[in-house]
C-alpha cells in the first residue's frame, strides 16, 4: 500500500505533528527515515510533566535536549509547559527555555505551575515583554519580575492572580480577551492589579475561587474596560446551604455612575453559579437596567448541598429540590425593537 502521507511536503507534515504533544511528535521519528528529522522543525513545543512518570531531573534534562536539538532556523510558534512537581527547583531552566523560544517568532506562550512554591525564587522572564510577535499569553502560578513594556500584538491573556503570584495587568493592557482566575486570598482585585485602562478589551471572564462578597469590585473593574462587550463571571460551583444563608444580608448599592462599557458597548453578560443573594440580584438588575445595548443576559444557578447527619456523622448531600442546574437566558433584542 502506498504511503501517501509520507509523500506530503515537510511543512504540511510538520503542521500535522504540531497538534501532538512534543513527546508523541518525537516518537514518529521511528516510523522511517523520512520522518526521523521532522520533529526538529515542528513549530509547537508542548511539555506535560507528571511526577508519576518521570523525575524532576529527567524532565528538566529532556526539555533542554529537545530545545537544543531543534533546527535553529525554524520558528517556534507555541511553547506550552505544564509542571506538576512539588520539588523546589531553581528557575534557571525555565528562564533559558522562555528566553530561547521568544527569539523564534513565538506567538503562544503557556506556562502552568501546579505549586507556586516549586520555584526557589521568582523567575526572571522579562524577555517575554520584548517579544513583539506574542499573540496569546497564559500564566498560572507564575510570579514575575516585571518590566513595564506592552506586547503590541497581544490578543488574549489568561492569568491567575493570588498573593503568591503578583502580576500587574498593566503590562498586558492592550489585550482584547482577558481570562482572570482570582484566588481566595485576594481581597482587592482592582488595586493594584488594574492600575491602567484597557482600551482594547472586549471580552472578560472572571473566575473566582471564592464567593463574591463585594460586587462593587466588579463595577470598579468595568470602569477600566470602556469597550467591553462580553462579560462572564463564575463563582465556585458547589456551596453548602449554611454558608449561603450566612451571606444573605447584602449591602451593595448601585454606584452613582455607570461604567462607559455598560452604557454603550456591553452586549452579553453571563453569571454562573448564581445563588440568588440580594447583592447578586442587585448586580444582575444593575446590568439589565443600564445596559442600553445589552442583547443577552444569562444566569445559571448552582447545585445546593445540605448538611445532614448520617450514622452520627455530618455529611453533605445534594438538596433534592435544587439538585438540577437551571440555566435561563433572556434575549433583549425583541424588547429593544418594540
List keywords for this structure.
338 residues, eleven-stranded mixed sheet, 24% strand
Short account of what is shown:
It contains 9 helices and 14 strands.
Structure description:
It is a single chain. The chain folds into 3 domains: 8-42; 43-175, no CATH class; 182-338, no CATH class. It is elongated, with a radius of gyration of 24 Å. The chain has 9 helices and 14 strands. It is α/β, with parallel strands linked by helices. The strands form 2 sheets. An 11-stranded mixed beta sheet has the order 1-2-3-4-5-6-7-8-10-11-14. A 3-stranded mixed beta sheet has the order 9-12-13. The model is unreliable at 239-249 and 318-324 (pLDDT under 50).
Beta-strand content? 15-25%
Compute the average pLDDT. 80
Total of helices:
9
Helix content, binned percent: 10-25%
Tell me the Rg in angstroms: 24 Å
Instruction: Summarize the biggest pleated sheet.
Output: 11 strands, mixed
| SSE string | HHEHEHEEEEEHEEHHEHEEEEH
**Low-confidence parts:** 239-249, 318-324
Write down the overall geometry: elongated
Structural class: alpha/beta
Q: Give the N-terminus to C-terminus distance in angstroms.
A: 66 Å
Strand order of the largest sheet: 1-2-3-4-5-6-7-8-10-11-14
Number of domains: 3
Number of strands: 14
